[in-house]
Specification:
This protein has 363 residues and is an alpha/beta fold. The chain has helices spanning 3-10, 21-25, 28-35, 45-53, 59-67, 72-97, 117-131, 146-155, 168-187, 203-209, 221-237, 240-247, 271-275, 287-296, 310-319, 324-361; strands at residues 13-16, 38-41, 105-108, 136-141, 160-165, 196-201, 254-258, 281-285. An 8-stranded parallel sheet has the order 2-1-8-7-6-5-4-3. Helix 9 runs parallel beside helix 11 (221-237). The longest helix has 38 residues, at 324-361. It starts with a helix and ends with a helix.
């Protein structure tokens, strides 16, 4: 049995951190669902930038949309929603079979809105309505300004993938924003079952300290942060406040491991997959990591609910001079800026392709 199936049997959902029109057109995504236990999908501006830049699969659609006067950001969201609604249809049977626990796809609001609460909320509502799919998450960053938008989106019944979380504290803040939205729905007599995941970015921790730590601590920081967060997650789910909303019909907001591709060339290509094996979580994997897991991955112990040795490991990092609270804030800020950079590059690609295809059409 493939390690992907074993991981699925353990109780962790495997999602693909990629979307391209070629993946859809070739039947590759369907094969991942059938053969590699993939039960969902995530996307971000960087993924779409690479997909549109490096493929001709979008050219015909761009050409047609340009003819109707669609341009820039509006054109991009048309393309993205075309892809993601197709993917959502492939995952719909899983969504139905799990009664909404699994089978989700994710679309991100413009990263230019990361620090703009009202605009983030308005964009989340609009994109979800346009998507018209019950299994479409709207990704909202867990920044200070994003937290009120998360609460309001959940209250409005918009399923949310909270993105750009880097620490236990950032995760707890996002989870509480979700919970407040659910509690308000209960108080208003609304159905409290609004789907959500909270996405913790892992490998960027180790990339940030690469070459600055003692060799004994190499590639241990991201995993320690994940274990600390998993302990908080399990504690929240067991708390009386959360159990009250579960009793009223709400579902838990699942913890999702993101940025799980190995960035250290000297480390295992399934380093974070093995370390982050934990029931009732999601691991969204780059395509190469998914294939590596299926080809030669071996699962070992599951992540301990009590955090295991995380505090001892983090104490060693503190002793080595690392302030993880400050680094978490830095990583979230850098992550938001990185998505803005990718977004701007994506918009430039949309503009240049639109112009080139329009010119070609007149010849």
């Amino acid at each position: 049995m493939k390690a992907t199936q074993l991981l699925h049997n353990l109780g962790q959902s495997i999602w693909l951190d990629n979307i391209t029109r070629d993946l859809l057109n070739s039947g590759t995504l369907q094969s991942y669902i059938g053969e590699l236990s993939v039960t969902g999908l995530t996307s971000n501006p960087t993924i779409f930038d690479q997909a549109i830049k490096n493929s001709t699969a979008y050219d015909a659609a761009i050409r047609e949309k340009v003819k109707t006067g669609t341009a820039g950001e509006a054109l991009f969201f048309d393309l993205a929603l075309d892809d993601l609604t197709r993917a959502a249809a492939l995952f719909q049977p899983i969504h139905d079979r799990t009664d909404g626990v699994d089978g989700w796809v994710s679309l991100e609001v413009s990263p230019l809105l990361a620090h703009d609460t009202p605009s983030t909320l308005a964009a989340a509502k609009e994109l979800h309505a346009r998507g018209g799919r019950t299994n479409l998450f709207i990704k909202i960053p867990g920044t200070t300004e994003g937290l009120p938008a998360i609460e309001e989106a959940i209250f409005a019944g918009v399923p949310v993938n909270v993105t750009l979380l880097f620490s236990r504290e950032q995760y707890v803040a996002a989870a509480e924003a979700y919970l407040r939205g659910v509690e308000r729905r209960i108080d208003a007599g609304l159905n409290p079952n609004v789907g959500s995941v909270a996405s913790m970015f892992i490998s960027r921790w180790d990339a940030a300290v690469m070459g600055k730590t003692p060799e004994a601590l190499r590639d241990l920081l991201g995993i320690a942060i994940a274990k600390r967060t998993y302990k908080a997650y399990r504690s929240l789910l067991a708390s009386p406040r959360w159990q009250r909303v579960f009793n009223a019909g709400a579902r838990p907001q699942r913890l999702l491991w993101a940025s799980t591709g190995t960035k250290d060339p000297a480390a295992s290509d399934v380093l974070y997959i093995k370390a982050l094996a934990a029931p009732f979580t999601v691991n969204t994997m780059p395509e190469g990591t998914l294939k590596a897991l299926a080809d030669h991955g071996v699962l070992e112990a599951i992540m301990p609910a009590d955090g295991g040795d995380c505090e001892e490991v983090l104490a060693q990092f503190a002793k080595a001079g690392f302030d993880v609270v400050a680094l978490a804030a830095q990583l979230q800020d850098e992550g938001a800026k990185s998505f803005v950079k990718s977004w701007n590059e994506l918009m430039a690609v949309i503009v240049s392709k639109s112009a080139a295809l329009a010119t070609a059409a007149t010849r």
